[in-house]
Amino acid sequence: MSHLSRTLPIKRAAHVYLVHEGQLLLVEERMDDGSIFYGLPGGKANAGETLGDAAVRQVLVETGLRVTDLMFVSLIEGELLTGTRNECYANFGRFTASFSGDLAPTDPEVVGVKWVPFEQVEGLVRYGPPPEVEERNPLIWVPTRDFVRGQPRAYYPI
């Protein structure tokens, strides 16, 4: 049960499922421990920025692609990383979109961008240490698992 009487920082983020011929676009980022992390393009919303605007901005810097016609898929909401220094209340929106342009990331944290067949997406997911890395939390990947299986839900409480 959540303790909503506590004050937690709120983290708002948006990620986009970009699909082409049965493949999902993932970004490759290097983690602090040197390993490669695969994630959806997107990221944190700035103050005063809608989730949709954050999705457009973040996808452009992480992939080089311009996205339009955002369609809402799901919302992930709840307390995340409880007991760590990054503890927060999360509102993470997931969208699909049309896209144009060429793959040309400008985000220095992105070391690659890769089209991955749906059936291979789950095999790239890494869980585990360090625990403060939210992307390695299995709950963050459940909506993506459901999406590639063709069974997305609209709401995922953490």
TrEMBL record:
<dbReference type="InterPro" id="IPR015797">
    <property type="entry name" value="NUDIX_hydrolase-like_dom_sf"/>
</dbReference>
<dbReference type="Pfam" id="PF00293">
    <property type="entry name" value="NUDIX"/>
</dbReference>
<dbReference type="GO" id="GO:0016787">
    <property type="term" value="F:hydrolase activity"/>
</dbReference>
<protein>
    <submittedName>
        <fullName>NUDIX hydrolase</fullName>
    </submittedName>
</protein>
<dbReference type="InterPro" id="IPR000086">
    <property type="entry name" value="NUDIX_hydrolase_dom"/>
</dbReference>
<feature type="domain" description="Nudix hydrolase">
    <location>
        <begin position="9"/>
        <end position="138"/>
    </location>
</feature>
<keyword id="KW-0378">Hydrolase</keyword>
